[in-house]
Design a protein that fits this description.
CATH architecture of the largest domain: 2-Layer Sandwich
Helix content: 25-40%
Structural class: alpha/beta
CATH topology of the largest domain: THUMP fold
Largest sheet: 7 strands, mixed
Number of domains: 2
Bound molecules: S-adenosylmethionine
Shape: globular
Strand content: 15-25%
Number of helices: 10
Radius of gyration: 22 Å
Distance between the termini: 55 Å
Length: about 375
């Protein structure tokens, strides 16, 4: 197996290919990407045998922006006989992996694949049984073992491979399934909820998304993001000239400031979260978040960067570099991750966590 499949949002294959090629090269793994527009995936083929496996281990999945999933695979299996699709799939995995903890039979996230997905659901049951019989898959699901992926790109035509559970997306097809809460004021509430699932480990939610925390929401109206914070019993300063949903104001947990988000200063010094969904130039938003972090005005931030029409990967990389450099220059120890979420369209979502500032007393300086 010397290929990596990366799932992505259809229409973003070129960005995904540019990213995997660049980041693999930074790990001294060289190869080329096969891209088909609007297919929802990219195949990265390594020049050297065995390097794809090394990449699967060493390239942190969390460092990828346009990838929804990252899998090691071999040649495409074509024309699987309808009377026995299982034998060639088991054959592909035999010797490559044993004792996997989970099986996912998946498709690209395209309209054309919707029909195929019905087949995948049915096919999972007999395939699971066959893989267990050969001990390729363990008898019970084990979250810390590798995951087997069978990725159908057309009827009778699939890639077969695996991902490591400590370096993959835990979600089927790389997409967290979220239900729109009927009392939320806007659909964009799902973006922030997805960001929490992607960026904050589940066992840290109580500590980092806990009740009683203070948050600032810049560009808050009508309140889809504020809704997520209020639902977790936080107190929210919502900044926007627009109108906030009555239902949120009635909770008593929200203070609405009709102000410019770029000039707003937090009214207290224990704000934990900054979230920002203002539609603005990405460089301006990145600079704003850098300023908040450097001034020690918040601990963690989640915000959107709108993508340009062209050179989308380059633009987003530049903005992230700007943010990283500013934090470094100001001795702010932090972690930055960005991802094009399922609920993002022409944008990516960025998460910044500040651990500590090397400059003592910085918060008192403002
Ligand atoms: C995409 S909407 C936010 C949706 C919101 N996150 C939600 O879930 O309901 C963008 C908002 O940013 C606000 N906005 C744009 N520029 C702003 C600025 N400079 N200061 C404050 N709000 C701003 C707009 O008024 C608009 O309500």
């Amino acid at each position: 197996m010397n290929k990596i499949i990366v799932y992505c949002r259809p229409g973003f294959e070129k960005e995904c290919a540019a990213e995997i090629t660049e980041k693999a090269a930074a790990h001294n793994v060289f190869g080329f990407s096969r891209v088909k527009d609007n297919s929802g995936y990219v195949i990265f083929e390594c020049y050297q045998h065995n390097e794809a496996e090394q990449l699967l281990r060493d390239l942190p999945f969390s460092s990828l922006i346009f990838a929804r999933q990252m899998i090691l695979t071999g040649e495409l299996l074509r024309d699987l006989p309808s009377e026995d699709r299982i034998t060639p799939i088991v054959g592909m995995l035999t010797g490559a992996i044993e004792g996997a903890g989970d099986l996912r039979v998946e498709v690209p996230d395209t309209n054309e694949s919707k029909e195929l997905m019905k087949f995948c659901r049915k096919f999972t049951v007999p395939l699971r049984g066959a893989l267990r019989k050969q001990k390729i898959l363990l008898g019970q699901e084990k979250p810390f073992r590798p995951v087997i992926h069978v990725f159908f790109i057309a009827p009778g035509c699939c890639y077969v491979g695996y991902s490591y559970s400590n370096n993959n997306s835990p979600f089927y097809m790389g997409i967290p399934r979220l239900k729109f809460p009927s009392d939320a004021p806007s659909r964009s509430t799902l973006k922030l909820e997805e960001a929490f699932h992607v960026f904050i480990p589940a066992d840290e939610w109580d500590e980092r998304l806990g009740s009683g925390m203070y948050a600032v929401d810049l560009g808050a109206c009508p309140g889809g993001w504020t809704y997520q914070l209020v639902k977790r019993s936080m107190m929210v300063h919502a900044v926007d000239n627009g109108t906030m949903a009555e239902s949120l104001m009635a909770t008593g947990q929200v203070i609405h400031h009709r102000a410019d988000g770029f000039r707003f200063e937090p009214p207290r010094n224990n704000v934990y979260w900054l979230v920002c969904d203002m539609v603005e130039k990405p460089a301006r938003v990145a600079q704003l978040v850098a300023d908040w972090m450097v001034k020690g005005w918040c601990r963690e931030a989640i915000f959107n960067l709108k993508l340009p029409m062209k050179k989308r990967y380059e633009e987003v990389s530049q903005n992230l570099t700007l943010l990283r450099e500013q934090l470094k220059e100001n001795h702010v120890h932090s972690e930055i991750h960005a991802r094009q979420l399922y609920h993002d369209r022409e944008e990516v979502t960025v998460h910044v966590r500040r651990f500590w500032s090397a400059v003592p007393g910085r918060r008192d300086e403002r």
